[in-house]
Records
---
Amino acid sequence: MAHRTLKMEKSKPLALSKEDRLVVAMDVHKKTVYAALRRNGQEVDTWVMPMRIETVAASLEPMKPWLKKVVYEAGPTGYGLARALKTAGMPVEVIAPGKTPQPANPGSKTDRLDCRRLAEYAEKGLLTPVAIPTEQEDADRQVVRLRDQIVIKQRRVKQQIKSLLLQQGIAEPAGLAHWSAEGIGALKAMSLRHQIRLALELLVEELEFLIASRQRVERQMAWLAKQKRHRENHRILRTHPGVGPVTAMSFLTEVYQAQRFTRAEELTSYVGLAPRVRQSGQTRREGPLIRAGRGALRSLLIEASWQWIRRDDAAAGVYRRLVRNTGSGQKAIVAMARRLAVHLWCMVCRKEKYRVAA
């Protein structure tokens, strides 16, 4: 490839040869993108541009023959930019923010400094990329996450209703412990002062709307489970004791591209079920879980683990042994959830149904 000169944003024109390698790191926000360019271990330029995918792609297009890597941290802007750059033939990586090296003395922090540091780390191979979901994988996952958001809102409204009753000295009607239809109907039939009635009616209406919304989303999840891209894996996961349709679909959409994990430790760290280990000499301690992954998926795996040990004698025996060893039922059930996650991952990768332990 012959020498070529690139016109840079603020510095002198850059002459490039076929031996040159460029690394671009970006700090991506809702309205702006700060970018830093390095060539062969040296910083060359930094610039800022509007956060429009076509603008970013156009700024990188002249560099494409020399690009070694384009990186930016995962964040609220999603993966649309990465997918577009990948389609354009650029070597793009989305970086896990929690695994980006942090200096002991960070000093000043600006968007321009952040992208410069990121470019340096990328050039040295110090960053950990995440898997970029396809548009279909991203869309499927949003349905499951919508259900998680509705569940959180339902819980909040239920707490508000109970708080209102407690504050006004009103006894909870029968059936409210499990929020049955009879219990909600009893709330509507209560004889109250006009102002209290107004507050309670609005909260009950919101709860009923959320219940209907959750049912609608779960119907969509059931439809997704029947689609060709999920049908076989969903059927396989349902053979595991304790795993229902919601847990199976949540696992499939959150742990997308399951074959990318090469070890069980990678999976458990991804879903946030790996304990924090501290070892020095002969002393080894396991602390709380490493904060990672989706809390909603962890909760579903833990709930499924309780059902698992109720339905599987072998699993119940493992749970009792863990309780004896740890002295804590909570630690034991988390360990069972970790085993469950590994089981589901192996079942998907190997296309094998659950086999009862001998």
Note: The domain at 18-130 is CATH 3.30.420.10 (Nucleotidyltransferase; domain 5).
---
Amino acid sequence: MKSLLLQVFLILCLTIASPSQQRYPSDDPVEELRGFTRSFSEHMISNIDKPFCVRVVRGEIVVKNTPDALVGAIVQIRGPAEARRISATKTDRRGHFRITRVPQGKYAFKATLLGFQSVVGTIIVSNQAPKDSAIKIGMPAGV
């Protein structure tokens, strides 16, 4: 009986902790969200107005206004420009991420993690960006 209860408890925990893999529809009225993964708990989204200009899509995600790394955050980019191709990765144990083989161009991005507000914005990949340029996103705690 204890074993069965433990199994049910684990299944419930995994179900609650696992983000849904639904996507925002391609005709969503909020253009920044089109095609990106939608978390089942997502209800607040922060927008970073200033684009990140980088040579390579890499960086880190931390808790906003702290140096604390966020592990397992989903980072997605869509583009270049009007293209609807989405590439994604997750942050490692240090909050770092990298998406390889990203051609030059303008990309929309979205960062999501359960318990935090999602963050959206723009990334410009350019050979003119400084060699050591990186993306740093501070995700606010969810409300």
Note: The longest strand covers residues 105-112.
